[in-house]
Amino acid sequence: MQIDIDALETYNSLAREGARSAAESLSQLTGLETHVEVTNVSLVSPADLDTGGDTRSGVRVELDGALEGEAVLTFKEDARQIIENVLAPEADQRMRRSSIEEVGNIMTSGFIDGWADHLDEIIDISPPTFLDGSEADPLPADSASTDEQLFVIRSRVEFPDEAADFRILLVPERDAFIEAVEPVDGDSIPFEKFEVFNEMTKSGAEKAATNVTTMTGIETAVEINRMSFVPIEEVPVSVGDQRYIGTVMEYEGTPSGYLAILFDRPSAEAVVDALVPVETDGEWSEMEQSAMKEIGNIMTSGFIDGWANVLETSIDHSPPTFVSDMGSSIMSPIVGQMARTQEHAFLLDSVIRTDDGVFRCELFALPHEDELREVLEELLVERADRTHVSPDEVF
Amino acid sequence: MGAGSGPFSDTGRIKVSIADYAVASQGTLTTSGLGSCLGIAIYDPDQGISSLFHPMLPYRNGDDSRPPERFVDSGIDIVVGELLAAGADESSLRAKIAGGAAVVDFKTNGEGSIGDRNVAAARDVLAGRGIEIIGEETGGDCGRTVRVDAWTGEVIVERTDGVNTEL
């Protein structure tokens, strides 16, 4: 099974057009302004299929015909209330619910229509199943029943006036989707190599998590790991506008690229306090910044070594740069560098957390696309379990 | 792309993504996450029409395969065209620019940071078109959010270090 990267680009733009069409339907029905924030195609293990942990309501539909799978369109509670208040003000619960079902139905059709046009075939959409928000993470029903990595196409659309959003997750049936992105001609990469690379990245993130734990005593683990294919301009918005503290590194070798290790403020304070237990008054002192850089260093080593061992290449990284800013602003110069030569990026995103969720750190790796293609072409799948160095190999 | 090619929006808040722009005569144009990128507001104060453009890189260098909205030079051409199509008068156009920071301090091989080069390109391209820059909040090492009042062309720049500037 081969994957054509150009086909991923096509599917990404179909999803973007679909999200725009769904957003326009919603604007026409409600008069609310909408803005398509981000669309990406990611490869994830079912266990990592994170939807943010919010309570969301909406609809789920099953797809058949030219595109098999499931789509879930969900609103957060505030967005649902905004829509109900516009479409069914003063109405009883049943009417309010049916307004959401109707909106969900129309938007899902808008989202899927572009795919049917592209494939020039019919996609059958089942009647919507209402999701009342009682499930913490309304996911496509079949996604939990497999161990194999899934393709997930996700879009997020905001209501800029209301600071609310909705999300569409499309989980195509795996084999049907792989068939759809099979190359007609030109460059292609076996699907299993993407899976292996994703596993390697997860091992790298696990090693980075272990290194943080060793250094700070904070018991952490990798919670989410995914590989997304995104238009280069959408990398910053994928990271978001929340404030982060952390480090950015440039790595050189095969592949080369950038790695950002970003903590929310309380987590940054926790790891720095573990190394430099001094009082802070909002500003990051030089000593604290250098503690953060040291954490960045050891996490990067863990992460990058996992790749280098499997790929049998040497990957060096630059000294870390301390950053404290909006996530999107931190990513802006990185994607600026990359956008000179590429239109899309593979964004490898891992979340490291403590069990109680108090501590949270995100790793964003952006390898140069052409070099990642090269790496995947060279990758021998049977080397995949060698993410940890054996002393015999080093000495 | 996005708001730039969508229906002409004239109420509420209009969000502008990276490598995107919007033109409006009412409401507030906003863009966030400006690091090395720029927020370029070009407006006609007499007609009450404003634009906000969020480019990533300075020059397209004649490569037509690249999206024009990604670059300062090719994007300004499009934005000015849209302003004129919306009824703005070219001789009345004014500009305000924000962003171009070095949030991450990369090695630059002596060619200046992307942020610096974006600012320099905006100054050159706008001067070349005879559009005066009457407000600027650029450089430094902080991220920024920019809001433009579409009717008046007033700009508010919010920096992540808490400093807000009105242009």
Report the uncertain regions of chain B: 1-10
Distance between the termini of chain A: 38 Å
* CATH classification class of the largest domain in chain A: Alpha Beta
Q: Classify the fold: give the CATH topology of the largest domain in chain A.
A: Chemotaxis protein chec
Largest interface: A-B, 35 and 39 residues
Helix content of chain B: 10-25%
Strand content of chain A: 25-35%
Please identify, by name, the CATH architecture of chain B.
2-Layer Sandwich
CATH class of chain B: Alpha Beta
Describe the biggest sheet of chain B?
A: 5 strands, mixed
Q: Any idea what the radius of gyration of chain A is?
A: 22 Å
The CATH homologous superfamily of the largest domain in chain A is called CheC-like
Number of helices of chain A: 11
Structural class designation of chain A: alpha+beta
Give a count of the beta strands of chain A, DSSP E runs of length 2 or more.
16
Low-pLDDT residue spans of chain A: 388-395
User: In whole angstroms, how far apart are the ends of chain B?
Assistant: 27 Å
What percent of residues of chain A adopt helix (DSSP H or I)? 40-55%
Number of helices of chain B: 3
The multimeric state of the shown protein is heterodimer
Largest sheet features of chain A: 14 strands, antiparallel
Could you walk me through the main structural features you see in this protein, from its secondary elements to its overall organization?
The complex is a heterodimer of chains A (395) and B (167). With 395 residues, chain A is of the alpha+beta class. Chain A folds into 2 domains: 2-180, CheC-like (Chemotaxis protein chec), CATH 3.40.1550; 189-394, 3-Layer(aba) Sandwich (Chemotaxis protein chec), CATH 3.40.1550. Chain A has helices spanning 5-30, 77-87, 93-119, 174-180, 191-216, 235-239, 265-275, 286-311, 327-338, 369-378, 391-394; strands at residues 2-3, 35-44, 56-65, 69-76, 123-125, 129-131, 150-159, 164-172, 189-190, 221-231, 243-252, 257-263, 316-317, 321-326, 344-353, 360-367. In chain A, strands 2, 3, 4, 5, 6, 7, 8, 10, 11, 12, 13, 14, 15 and 16 form a 14-stranded antiparallel sheet that branches. Chain A is globular. With 167 residues, chain B is of the alpha+beta class. Chain B has one domain (2-166): 60s Ribosomal Protein L30, Chain: A. Helix content of chain B is 20%, strand content 32%. In chain B, strand 9 and strand 10 (164-166) form a beta hairpin. Chain B is globular, with a radius of gyration of 15 Å. At the A-B interface, strand 2, strand 11, strand 14 and helix 9 of A face strand 1 and strand 3 of B.
